[in-house]
From TrEMBL, chains A, B:
Gene3D superfamilies the record matches: Aldolase class I, nicotinate phosphoribosyltransferase
GO molecular function: glycosyltransferase activity
Coiled-coil residues: none
UniProt function note: Catalyzes the first step in the biosynthesis of NAD from nicotinic acid, the ATP-dependent synthesis of beta-nicotinate D-ribonucleotide from nicotinate and 5-phospho-D-ribose 1-phosphate.
Residue ranges annotated for the Nicotinate/nicotinamide phosphoribosyltransferase domain, each copy included: 149-317
Family per record: Belongs to the NAPRTase family.
Domain of life according to the entry: Bacteria
Pathways per UniProt: Cofactor biosynthesis; NAD(+) biosynthesis; nicotinate D-ribonucleotide from nicotinate: step 1/1
Catalysis performed (reactions): 5-phospho-alpha-D-ribose 1-diphosphate + nicotinate + ATP + H2O = nicotinate beta-D-ribonucleotide + ADP + phosphate + diphosphate
Annotated ranges, domain Nicotinate phosphoribosyltransferase C-terminal: 371-428
Name of the protein in question: Nicotinate phosphoribosyltransferase
Domain Nicotinate phosphoribosyltransferase N-terminal span(s) in chain numbering: 5-127
Post-translational modification: Transiently phosphorylated on a His residue during the reaction cycle. Phosphorylation strongly increases the affinity for substrates and increases the rate of nicotinate D-ribonucleotide production. Dephosphorylation regenerates the low-affinity form of the enzyme, leading to product release.
Length: 447, 447
């Protein structure tokens, strides 16, 4: 969704002031996550694609300008300026799927300050939400070991748009598919699904329901077995399959309640006894990385985990401590001193080397053997390249996570990756802070 | 957003099976929240309006049918049936803003089973998310006592759509306005905003920034004072106002970091000394109902709370344990027995009386002195009345919450409102459960 009013009122108010005063000098804003949530050692960058679409199409429609004139009493000169306004800036960003750590810019915008300010809300929104969810999903996928994980979250994500974004983010993070059909269509993600309890209940009994489903979908028969009694359901599923096309005709069974570890062992035993060792066991019901890790550790014979709500809203960390901060304006670095929220000044680059990451000023040379994480993604308001295939972001994510040490990937109280500031960035920050503090003290002594 | 594929794949698979088998008998599904999150004593129903829009416009576009044919191998007869499919059902629902408790249907759909199944995902999505957020917002509004609360969440909601829904839900729940301009325009909510730290930093110093803002917006000057030093910022704001139009010209100041309680007391003192007792103090920065309640209890002289992320994602309860369950099909009640997820059969009504709520079968007479919570909202797939004004939902919410006892509204470990099942509903449930269990036992003894 795009539109000039998809922003906070203060962005428009400030933009009006900047435009009126001819303050069109380039500003650089840096978007980063200050501190990671307690049980996160890394983040998976996600949401860039929606940011680029938003910036490229940013403009004010007539009804939006009418609203600003009639309800917000914007003056004619400002409205004329807004009518012409487009996003014309340069943007560098970390590509989707890349692993990043706290304090590292995910994206930097350099643009006339009014433009840079107006897109703040949407940029923060997309990157905060999608990075939180991609990170949660990566944890689930990793916890499942060799088992596959699929996205079942659509019914309880925070909105329909959110459901589409979650399916995409979780696929980047390593999920094998999604139940969300529109997301599957739009992004080319494998669509997956089984049946609901209501299907079983709509027939006179479970056996009749299983027979109908097996007849209608002989090539993808996954039967939900826990509507009345789980192991009874497994036996009914086996009987139905044997009566239909034999042992190979049952693709899978799904367990959705009870003790998934114990039930999967018992179900596996029944299936193997019936010569159905290729029938997969799908488990679902309130799962997240913590419960999946327990099942994996216990050796539960589960082939596919359907993960829903807790991943889809990133339940234990539904937001990130993200910020979009002015770091340079009209060629001078800036920073704020607000308690607990001080920023580091200047346009930046992050260099990743074997010793960890270094956040540096953008014009510093790369340390030997390191590579820059931020790449140019937009110039003069236009993308520099088309959207990359989702599989490329997905491969990047898998490769990045594979390089992380266990102390960073562990689920509980991990360490975060090593991040240092370059000596020049530290010096710039210290000098500017000293200058600002001395000004504050001068003002205090006048008060 | 609407579209036939905004659903889970299994809904489409099951629908295909129902259509193929001519299973067009009416099904009733009941949507309710099983258990409330730990610190919730009540819920504020929200999201109905989006559900109605979704159901009214539900259909398959050509590109969607193409996807089902090419990627999901749906057969021609099913595709023809889906092409013609519209939602033609009857819906009753609890109006937005109404207080409800666990187990009480928020919405019931009666429709041919394929239609009722296909809209499940979107109905659950809208009602779960928006009810969670409206409930969180109601808690924040109540915690603020006489102070006003405004929505600052847009930058960190779970998507752009989510931001629009949060602004609307929080307004229904008692917020006074939103920073989200598009939501304000679309729903007629008051738009509110101040300035960002970047505005202060874009000028040579704080005083120059305050002067510019005061000149540009003389009728709505709220100055952000904590960029460098909060009390220094308050003094600068006062000086700027006195130099401009005198004490009345400063609408407000905003505190966004540090000890908001102590700083608000000191800021109030400085403002009052300068004869600026009408200047309002706005506080923001990581607030939720718990921190607002502490500030209120401490008597912090804060006039307006800007509440962002924690409300916008309902941080401590980002989802609800919602369910959409088949309760009747082809005129017989149904239920499932799944461990921990058993349902109560039959189409229902909730009657609210002075002794609490009674969940009854829909055709039972109302207990004396009670009123039904579910009202008809859709007949034959069409709304029975136009969308109600947002202020009516808002008034309903305020009135409902006012009737709740303190043990239900308290923020920590509240009791939930009294909800009983009618004797007839209990009897129907017990009889059906006994019948299903005896069938399960018969099957077990055969196994």
């Amino acid at each position: 969704m795009t539109g000039g009013l998809l922003t906070d009122l203060y962005e428009l108010t400030m933009a009006a002031s900047y435009l009126r005063r001819g303050m069109t000098g380039p500003a650089t804003f840096s978007l980063f996550v200050r501190d990671l949530p307690p049980d996160r050692g890394y983040l998976v960058a996600c949401g860039l694609e929606d940011c680029l679409t938003f910036m490229e199409s940013y403009r004010f429609a007539k009804k939006e300008l009418d609203y600003l004139r009639e309800e917000q009493r914007f003056d004619p000169a400002t409205l004329r300026a807004l009518e012409k306004l487009r996003f014309t800036g340069d943007v560098s960003a970390v590509p989707e799927g890349r692993v990043v750590f706290s304090g590292e810019p995910l994206l930097e915008v350099t643009a006339p300050i009014a433009e840079a300010q107006l897109v703040e809300t949407a940029l923060l929104n997309h990157l905060t939400f999608q990075t939180a969810v991609a990170t949660k999903a990566a944890r689930c996928a990793r916890a499942a070991g060799a088992a596959r994980v699929i996205d079942f979250s659509f019914r309880r994500t925070q909105g329909i748009d959110a459901g589409l974004a979650v399916a995409r983010a979780s696929y980047i993070a390593g999920f094998a598919g999604t139940s969300n059909v529109e997301a599957a269509r739009r992004h080319g993600i494998p669509a997956v699904g089984t049946m609901a309890h209501s299907f079983v209940e709509a027939f006179p009994d479970e056996e009749a329901a299983f027979e109908a489903f097996t007849a209608d979908f002989p090539d993808r028969t996954t039967l939900l077995v826990d509507t009345y009694d789980t192991l009874g359901g497994v036996r009914t599923a086996i009987r139905t399959a044997l009566r239909a096309d034999g042992p190979g005709s049952l693709t899978g069974i799904r367990l959705d309640s009870g003790d998934l570890g114990a039930l999967s062992v018992q179900a596996r035993h029944l299936l193997d006894e019936a010569d159905m060792s290729s029938t997969r066991i799908v488990a679902s019901g309130g799962l997240d990385e913590y419960s999946i890790a327990e099942l994996t550790a216990a050796g539960a014979p589960i082939d596919v985990y359907g993960v829903g709500t807790k991943m889809g809203v990133s339940a234990d960390a539904p937001s990130l401590d993200s910020a979009y901060k002015l770091v340079a304006f009209a060629d001078r670095p800036v920073m704020k001193l607000s308690t607990g929220k001080a920023t580091a000044p200047g346009a930046k680059q992050v260099y990743r080397g074997t010793e960890g990451d270094v956040i540096a000023l953008r014009d510093e040379p790369a340390p030997g053997g390191s590579r820059p994480l931020l790449v140019p993604v937009m110039r003069n308001g236009r993308r520099v390249s088309p959207a990359e295939p989702l599989t490329r972001s997905r491969d990047r994510c898998a490769a990045d996570i594979n390089t992380l040490p266990a102390r960073v990937t562990r689920l509980r109280r991990p360490e975060t990756g090593a991040v240092a500031l370059s000596p020049r960035l530290e010096q710039t920050r210290d000098e500017l802070r000293a200058e600002l503090l001395s000004r504050v003290h001068r003002l205090r002594s006048h008060a």
